[in-house]
Design a protein that fits this description.
The chain is mainly α. The chain is about 75% helix and about 0% strand. GO terms for molecular function: endopeptidase activity.
């Protein structure tokens, strides 16, 4: 029997997420904050706050987890946070001569705040729907949350990226159950604030190959341990 969707909780989640996003990017509410890293985090906090509000108000059982299928959070933290932070910081050092470690982990934390909402909450709430329907709903809501609704070529490209991101990150979440893992994948594009060039695209491809391979191998090991012959 499929779980019944709690539409009230989804409405609360999304209203809170959009209000927080609007306050952060469309008003001067954050203009007095001098710490740029804190501003980055506050711009992405809405989905997490919305998820926690909905779970609290509706007393939902929501299986959010930082570690997911892994024995502890150290494994996904090392593979999906430390590894990209070190590699990408190395690329930054070669191009601009410094290690922006604080920026790396701020971007990862930003991704985590979003993923608590989009995957940890919304994907879980919609899991009884057909896969494509769930992806489509999350895509539309996630795209609209960014509050860039003009019909322009760039926004249509961004919508396409959101669609494939929803599918791909959703697959990672379904395979790992780890918010740390999906936060790392989510953050790949956000690391490169000055655009993607051949070096950045190569690094992204390498990280994706490492992560996909790790997920496949770990899931095989996990299933073998869970179901010994």
């Amino acid at each position: 029997m499929k779980n019944k969707i709690n539409f009230g909780s989804i409405i609360v989640f999304y209203v809170v997420a959009v209000i927080c996003r609007y306050a952060a990017v469309k008003t001067n509410l954050l203009s007095g904050i001098e710490n740029p890293y804190l501003v980055i985090l506050l711009r992405g906090a809405g989905p997490a706050l919305g998820a926690f509000a909905a779970i609290k108000i509706f007393s939902l059982h929501n299986p959010m987890s930082l570690k997911g299928i892994y024995k502890n959070a150290i494994v996904p933290f090392a593979v999906y946070w430390i590894l990209p932070a070190v590699l990408i910081a190395g690329v930054y050092y070669l191009t601009i001569g410094k290690f922006p470690i604080l920026l790396m982990f701020t971007v990862l934390a930003y991704g985590l705040l979003e993923e608590i909402g989009w995957r940890g909450f919304l994907q879980e709430q919609l899991k009884s729907l057909p896969k494509f329907t769930s992806i489509l709903i999350i895509t539309v809501l996630w795209f609209a949350w960014h509050l860039n609704l003009e019909i322009t070529p760039n926004n249509m490209i961004f919508l396409g990226i959101i669609f494939f991101g929803t599918w791909g990150i959703g697959k990672v979440y379904s395979s790992t159950g780890s918010l740390l893992a999906v936060a790392g994948v989510h953050s790949l594009n956000n690391f490169f604030r000055d655009g993607l060039h051949s070096t950045e695209l190569t690094l992204i491809a390498i990280l994706l190959l490492i992560w996909v391979g790790f997920i496949i191998l770990y899931n095989k090991k996990f299933k073998t341990v869970a179901n010994p012959a």
